[in-house]
Write a structure and sequence with these properties.
Distance between the termini: 22 Å
Organism: Rhodococcus opacus (strain B4)
Family: Belongs to the C/M/P thioester hydrolase family.
Shape: globular
Number of strands: 12
Helix content: 10-25%
CATH class of the largest domain: Mainly Beta
Number of domains: 2
Keywords: Hydrolase, Lipid metabolism
Oligomer: single chain
Number of helices: 6
Largest sheet: 12 strands, antiparallel
Strand content: 35-45%
Order of helices and strands: HEEHEEEEHEHEHHEEEE
Catalytic activity: a fatty acyl-CoA + H2O = a fatty acid + CoA + H(+)
Low-confidence stretches: none
CATH superfamily of the largest domain: Acyl-CoA thioesterase, double hotdog domain
Mean pLDDT: 94
Structural class: alpha+beta
CATH topology of the largest domain: Porin
InterPro entries: Acyl-CoA_hotdog, Acyl_CoA_thio, HotDog_dom_sf, TesB_ACOT8-like_N, TesB_C
Strand order of the largest sheet: 1-2-4-5-6-3-9-12-11-10-8-7
Length: about 280
């Protein structure tokens, strides 16, 4: 995982290597595989570069293979449709010619119309909560300091995150809520805004599944994302806190489904997200 906001922004600065083909960098760090939020956000940026004047309305992607974190990612964009209001792109992310992620991405021009939303839940204010690094301080010696590593976002949970919950006798309900905001400035760019929401959306979404499965991202066993869907509703206000409300409506057959909603602190619904994760054994 990247440790600063500047590193995240650098990952989203794709290089165009030929028409509709882009190169995505990798962070310089020790990882087992590519972070799914990174590859989805880079794919979205690649699609946006081919549809000027239009912003993302949805992304539906599949993680087909674990990505090698030492190899740059090549994004190939196929234009499927450019209509009066909507554009559709198919994006494939490859490494050494092998597809590791594929997404259908829809972008649209601004349109006026209905405006309503599900209301933000009543939650404690972020200033009343502690940073996740403090919450996980008792586990600082595990995995070479993984739990207390520097993060690009200040994250503050209301509930116990999966590592803390693992030590409790009873599994908590399959719901996880946290506030987060960048530890740094974000440029005011609408396309970048959507890509950052995509990156953020995969940081903790499977928490609610892991709580029920008595797992963490470090084990026991493996936790891997299978697919990812996101609908963009309104711009995120990265100058203030964002609320990420996540829950798991179902777990079966070694898979857990997670649903999430991201709100601005003002209560505006920014995005809706769905993802299913695979809960496997050690290999």
């Amino acid at each position: 995982m990247t440790s600063t906001v500047a590193e995240v922004l650098d990952l989203l600065s794709l290089a165009e290597i030929s028409p509709r083909t882009f190169l995505g960098a990798q962070p310089v760090e020790d990882r087992q595989r590519v972070f799914g939020g990174q590859v989805a956000a880079q794919a979205l940026m690649a699609a946006g570069r081919t549809a000027p004047g239009r912003l993302p309305h949805s992304l539906h992607g599949y993680f087909l293979r674990p990505g090698d974190p030492t190899v740059p990612l090549v994004y190939t964009v196929e234009s499927l449709r450019d209509g009066g209001s909507f554009s559709t792109r198919k994006v494939a992310a490859t490494q050494n010619g092998i597809v590791i992620f594929e997404a259908m991405i829809s972008l649209n021009a601004p349109v006026s119309g209905i405006d309503y939303q599900q209301q933000m839940p009543a939650v404690p204010e972020p200033d009343s909560l502690i940073r996740i690094e403090e919450q996980l301080a008792p586990y600082a010696d595990e995995y070479d300091g993984w739990w207390v590593r520097p993060r690009p976002f200040d994250m503050r949970y209301f509930n116990a995150p999966p590592r803390v919950a693992l030590d409790r006798d009873i599994a908590p309900p399959p719901r996880s809520r946290l506030w987060l905001r960048p530890d740094g400035d974000i440029p005011d760019d609408p396309m970048l805004n959507s890509c950052l929401i995509t990156f953020v959306s995969d940081l903790t979404l499977l928490d609610s599944v892991m709580l029920q499965a008595r797992k963490t991202s470090r084990g026991p066993g493996i936790v891997a994302s299978l697919d990812h869907a996101i609908w963009f509703h309104r711009p995120a206000n990265f100058a203030d806190w964002l609320l990420y409300d996540q829950h798991s409506p179902n777990g079966t057959g070694g898979r857990g489904l997670a649903a999430g909603r991201i709100y601005n602190r003002s209560g505006a619904l920014v995005a809706s997200i769905m993802q299913e994760g695979y809960l496997g054994r050690d290999t």
